[in-house]
Write a structure and sequence with these properties.
single chain, four-stranded antiparallel β-sheet, four-stranded mixed β-sheet, 5 helices, elongated
């Protein structure tokens, strides 16, 4: 099974265009120096998120029985035995529901003794790596992504 998820390209480009419009609009309006600094900081934030949305592709992928996760710190692939738990966390904020996909993954420093003890207790190891993806990161509903991961043989909690 092969599948991948990432932020839609249009969103990344929209952020970059928004940053350019913000800077051009600020220059055209002739805002004072302090206001200009604040607007430039906001524009840099938009550029950062736009570039990361375009650069970190795909954020999550399943291929050849491996789960590949790409973050700002790099890319790593995990076989099913190094994926301790996958679950969808649903939260309610100001009357709106949002969902996040949580992945508990093996850390490079995870020791086998800690791993065995945690598995016996039904928990991920204390030094496991937690990666959280929202709908923005995946470009799809986290529930749908969890279903695909479960079908691929990864441990998904329902």
């Amino acid at each position: 099974m092969q599948a991948s998820w990432s932020t839609p390209l249009a969103f990344g480009y929209a952020l970059l265009i928004g940053a350019a419009v913000l800077v051009v609009g600020t220059l055209a309006a002739g805002i004072d120096a302090i206001g200009m600094v604040l607007v430039l900081v906001a524009a840099l934030g938009l550029v950062f998120f736009g570039v990361s949305a375009l650069r970190l592709r795909p954020r999550l992928a399943v291929h050849d029985n491996l789960l590949t996760v790409r973050t700002l710190t790099g890319q790593r692939s995990y076989p099913p035995e190094e994926v301790y738990r996958i679950r969808v966390l649903s939260l309610r904020h100001i009357g709106r529901r949002s969902s996040q996909l949580e992945l508990d993954l093996a850390n490079d420093a995870t020791t086998s003794r800690d791993d065995e003890e945690s598995r016996r207790r039904g928990l991920p190891p204390a030094d496991s790596r937690l990666v959280v993806f929202g709908r923005w990161d995946l470009g799809d509903d986290p529930h749908a992504v969890a279903e695909v991961l479960a079908a691929a043989g990864f441990p998904v909690e329902q």
